[in-house]
Amino acid sequence: MSASSPTHDPFAPRRLYMDNAATSFPKPPEVLAAMNHYATELGASPGRGAYREAREAGRLMNQCRQRLCQLFNGKNPEHVVFTLNTTDALNLAIRGVVMHELRLGHKVHLITSDLDHNSVLRPFNALCQTTGVTQTRVACDPSTGLVDPGDVRNAITPDTRLIALVHGSNVSGTLQPVSQVGRIAREHNIPFLVDAAQTLGHVPIDIEADCIDMLAFPGHKGLLGPLGTGGLYIRPGIEKRMATVREGGTGSVSERDTQPDFMPDRFETGSHNAIGIIGLSEGVRYILEQGAENLWQHEQDLVRVMIDGLSETGEMPGLTYFGPQGVKNRCGVFSVRIAGFDQPQTLSDLLESQFGILTRSGLHCAPHAHRTFGTDQLAGTTRFSLGPFLTKQDVKYACDALGQVCHSLTASM
């Protein structure tokens, strides 16, 4: 990583952060510097004034749109809609498409998968309960978590109006075949929504090559920005197949009391989180400077070290990890169980107290993913998730810690 990567006090007690699937930490110093500059030097609301500070805040916000398009090959920066987070982006996409279709008098059928997050499952279920929408949740392979694109094709009906698929599982790290599903959706002229909560900034994404119509993403995870940021990229033309889900002030065409019909104002309502977006922009710039492919190679190297450590059965008695058992079709998210620990939180507490390793335990807002892997009745798993500032030595340390826990548990039985 670059010379500007965060550093730690070598004399401080070890705290090894391995919860990047929840939010990335640490952030590049440039992110914090940009947010401080905005707070102390600008402070104005973008699009809400003609004075220099407001214009500069607007310029910086639009620069973020441009950098995001550069990262995932978006064709029009004005089609980057800033949201509160991925959940907000997914709700905008799902409800926008469904309400548009219902207003046209169409029946609506939706498709997603068992590995998807509650940020897709709950909007789908709410719409089914309140509007008569129907859905199909495609099963995933119980060993890998992979969706068969053929099953998605077979689930399509004449009423299918949206296919939504998580790119990388926040439980198993499974990378779904989004490009294959995208081509199927494009063949049927069905909008394809991808949840990139665990992949954008980690895994290179090309929305044109992968036939992605809408890409929902967080600013605070792989993009290394602050919490409270995210976005939805809408492929030009798809916005015409979406209704607005909230209306209000935009700073544009204020003489009209109806929502603007141009992008991004059509879907961006109210004052922006300018300080967060400007920080996010520097996170994206960091990724572009490092190179998305280089960061992905670094993560794959860490994944190999993790798999090697977890796969040494003699060193890890009683340990199971879920999802793909190799580097293929996987990002840096690992869920583990150790026989003898009834509650995954007990393992997390032990890893923190004895080794300073910070993990996330539970069902991870993805109940059907845990059902797929058979961990739903076991209170879930203990999750390790990797980030760009971790090293191979960090990952080896985590594996060694798990090995010590396994052997201590075996010795006490």
List the helices and strands and how they pair.
Blueprint lengths: L15 E2 L11 H14 L9 H21 L7 E4 L2 H18 L5 E5 L4 H14 L2 E5 L10 H7 L4 E7 L11 H10 L4 E4 L18 E5 L11 E5 L39 H17 L1 H20 L7 E3 L11 E6 L5 H12 L1 E2 L1 E3 L4 H7 L7 E5 L6 H21 L1
Parallel strand pairs: 1-11, 3-4, 3-5, 5-6, 6-7
Antiparallel strand pairs: 2-8, 7-8, 9-10, 10-13, 12-13
Helix pairs in contact: 1-7, 2-7, 3-4, 8-11
Describe the structure.
- This protein has helices at 29-42, 52-72, 86-103, 118-131, 149-155, 178-187, 274-290, 292-311, 344-355, 367-373, 392-412, and strands at 16-17, 80-83, 109-113, 134-138, 160-166, 192-195, 214-218, 230-234, 319-321, 333-338, 357-358, 360-362, 381-385.
- A seven-stranded mixed β-sheet has the order 2-8-7-6-5-3-4, with helices on both faces.
- The protein folds into two domains: 16-28 and 291-412, Aspartate Aminotransferase, domain 1 (Alpha-Beta Complex); 29-290, Aspartate Aminotransferase, domain 2 (3-Layer(aba) Sandwich).
- Strand 5 (160-166), helix 6 (178-187) and strand 6 (192-195) form a beta-alpha-beta unit.
- The chain is of the alpha/beta class.
- Helices cover 39% and strands 14% of the residues.
